[in-house]
Design a protein that fits this description.
alpha+beta; 4-stranded antiparallel sheet
Length: 140
């Protein structure tokens, strides 16, 4: 069977319990078609990059799937029919990630958000106590 990483976005209006019910529903679809889900990560309610069907936020969920292509196609078909699912994406991978995904690792992120690591600023010249504009105005 093939390995997949599957991410879907659920509407911001649905509760956490309803998101869990959606996860169980799609897990059932995969398991009834001889597939399995090895890991589920609920990333929670996050802002989207742009408005999707009048929603600025969505519940993000990642699923690691080991299933035949027909099972994944059936799950995606049911997602298209479900009004609570805004977007989904399935990617075939060579191997599944064992530990937490990049979104769940706290050590990679700092309190500054998604802007990445802070660059070293030792290569910039130091500023003097007074700005050059004040010195030039005093001489005139």
């Amino acid at each position: 069977m093939a390995l997949y990483e599957h991410v879907f976005l659920a509407r911001q209006d649905v509760s956490g319990q309803q998101v869990d019910a959606l996860i169980e529903q799609f897990k059932g679809v995969l398991e009834s078609n001889e597939g399995s889900v090895s890991k589920v990560e609920n990333w929670g309610l996050r802002s989207t990059a742009y408005r999707i069907n009048k929603n600025r936020k969505a519940h993000y969920v990642l699923m690691n799937v080991d299933a035949p292509a027909a099972a994944v196609a059936e799950m995606e078909r049911q997602m298209r029919l479900n009004d609570d699912i805004l977007r989904y994406m399935t990617i075939r991978v060579e191997e599944l990630e064992e530990g937490p995904s990049a979104m769940m690792r706290k050590s990679d992120r700092d309190d500054r958000g998604d802007r990445g690591p802070r660059r070293d600023r030792d290569d910039r010249p130091r500023r003097s106590a007074e700005s050059p504009d004040k010195e030039s105005k005093g001489e005139e």
